[in-house]
Amino acid sequence: MSDKKSKPVIINILMGLVLFQGLSGLAGGIGLVLDPSGQSVQIPIEWLQGSPFDSYLIPGLVLLIVLGFYPLYLFYGLIKKSSWVWPGTLFLGMALLIWIFVEILVVGYHAEPPLQLIYGMLGLFISVLALTKTVKQFYKKSNQ
Predict the structure, then answer these.
(1) Where are the beta strands (DSSP E) in the chain?
(2) Which residue among 25, 110, 126, 142 is the one 20 to 30 A from 41 at the CA level?
(3) 92-113: b (≥16 Cβ within 10 Å) or e
(4) Residue 4's pLDDT is what?
(5) Within 13 Å and on the Cβ side, how many CA atoms surround 120?
(6) Where are the domains of the chain?
(7) What is the pLDDT of residue 2?
């Protein structure tokens, strides 16, 4: 009851970013798993030339699990004030940054649409918010 009133704004922002990542990771992951050619999500298969992949199936599975299901599980933990949430959000932010970095190395940077920039910034924001004293203390207090 009083938890909702005392929840810092930064926690709500973090929750929104994590939820957004989870939902978009699910959408993108499902799209790539169901259509590994990338056509349904408008990603050219040619981008995979020179990469270890001949289709988007494996990247789609990673996207679906690590950047789709995991953030939704993390969102649940944020709501429940679970103790693992603090390192979990940091892991998510770093995983997203690594995903974008590897994607740029493998397929190159594509400014149109600016998804790599958007999700790179999202990973950065999640990481920075997870490292704030407010977030650490909020989730540490819940377990004392």
Answers:
(1) none
(2) 126
(3) bbebbbebbeebeeebeeeeee
(4) 52
(5) 12
(6) 2-139
(7) 46
Extract the tokens encoding 10: 């930064």
Task: Give the tokens for residue 102.
Answer: 């590897």
The beta-carbon contacts of 73-82 under 8 Å, at least 24 apart in sequence, are 74/18, 74/22, 75/15, 75/18, 75/19, 75/22, 78/11, 78/14, 78/15, 78/18, 79/15, 81/3, 81/138, 81/139, 81/142, 81/143, 82/139, 82/142
Task: Give this prediction's pTM.
Answer: 0.90
Three-point CA angle 33, 122, 87, nearest 5°: 90
Q: Which amino acid is at 49?
A: Q
Identify the pLDDT of residue 5: 60
pLDDT tens per residue across span 112-134:
889 999 999 999 999 999 999 99
Predicted local confidence at residue 1, as pLDDT: 43
